[in-house]
Amino acid sequence: MLELRHPQLSLRRQCALLGLAWSSLYYRPAPERAEDLQLMRWLDEPYTATPVYGVRRMTAWLHGQGYEVNHKRVARLLRQMGVEAIYPKPRLSQPVASHTLYPYLLRGVRVTQVNQVWSTDITYVRLATGFVYLVAVMDWCSRYVVSWAISITMDVAFCLEALDQALHQGRPEIFNTDQGAQFTSQEFTTRLQKGGVRISMDGRGRALDNVCVERLWRTVKYEEVYVREYQSVWDARQHLARYFAFYHGERLHQALGYRTPAAIYGGGGRTPPLARAKKSYGGPDTKLILPRKWS
After folding, report:
1. Closest to 160 measured CA to CA, from 133, 189, 197, 132
2. Which of 56, 90, 142, 272 is the S-S candidate for 264 at Cβ 3.0 to 4.6 Å?
3. Among residues 278, 277, 249, which one has the least CA distance to residue 265?
């Protein structure tokens, strides 16, 4: 909204008219410290293996690896990563005033059809010099990832992008999420309601309510993220696109009778296209390369 070479208004005056602090015009956020990035890398793998570890166990584990950090720093980094330990929390029945709560609709429900239940979640993905967040929309019956997107910030915009891509391909009967700020936002729930989709939300502290996506994250991290060293956001996009192509069309799932998600979701035919990731932050702004047809 600021015009750098305005013929009449100086930048200081433009900031005053917009109600912006003059210093914010030149502010550049400091990059993540290398030590914090290394600690986050160390925290990611044990959390994926043992998500019941809380802040103090994670702190003790880091001490055992030779990192002298206190629990406050570990708690801050875990919050930044968007993860927390799985444990029963007190006062679970208390409503949160900031958003509308929806009941959990999947207790006792047998999922037997494609597009009966979709769910979504966000996970942390490390880079060589930073990190990104990955969101995915999954069909429970087929384990098919209907859409996915990545972003350098954990805001609602890239979640809406993944949701729009998914709804463009089909409509589930029930859409299940956790109670994160992205999924309880008015923009997110309104899109689902306009599409005639019933909204289901996990109970607070009940990660197993969304267990299918939790298993997806474990698979993606151990089979793709941990065996590579993503150098940039663009690099992560390209490799994740290739992995999801493999995951859909070639990886056999024991829970599916050793068939692929694409075979179940698409009935053996051509699968829906992958969702385009969020626009580049430092890389070319192009669409992801779609996988070739699978036989």
Report:
1. 189
2. 142
3. 249
